[in-house]
Amino acid sequence: MAARDMHFVVASANSMSSLKPMFAETFDRLHFVAENGGQVVSYGQLLCQEFMASNDVENLLSYFNYNLLDRPTIFNGAQGYYMLKGSRVNFEKITEEEQKALEAAIQRLNGLEELDDDFIKITMLLSPEEANRVSEAFNRDFDGNLVDVPSGFDAIDFIQKGVHT
User: Fold this and answer.
1) What are the pLDDT digits (tens) for 52-68?
2) Which of 1, 49, 123, 165 could pair with 11 as two cysteines, CB 3.0-4.6 Å apart?
3) b/e per residue, 93-104, with b = 16+ CB within 10 A?
4) Integer Cα distance of 50 and 121 in angstroms
5) How far is Cα 43 from Cα 32, in angstroms, rounded to an integer?
6) Is the pTM of this model over 0.70?
7) Considering only CA atoms, which of 55, 51, 44, 76 is closest in space to residue 157?
């Protein structure tokens, strides 16, 4: 690719912490659009990162009545991943090794008031049927600057409007 001055772009809903090991040998020679468009990295350098406004996060929490134990939710922040204690990580479409690595990376919170970070996206882990139901209702009823998109792992990613790969 270099001999022909060709550039390769990886576009993914995954985080850079997930993508970097996948492309370890070529990481510094690639461009990445990660987190559903929330992060752009070129040749190993962060070019831009889009965060949700705090009022959008609050509106999302309010929309779900702050009840996220029944809907396991991962908050993807600038400083790490966060999830309420008692919530289970259950991605059926990732390997057991990937599941263990994700679980190890998540900081567990006693309550939502402990959330203190800027968020790129919020992922809700749902069955395919529930994901469809929640998605339809959210897109119809939510009055804010967030949209939901399928994650590809039987989950929903909530992201800012206009930031999507």
Assistant:
1) 999 999 999 999 887 77
2) 165
3) eeeeeeeeebee
4) 9
5) 8
6) yes
7) 76
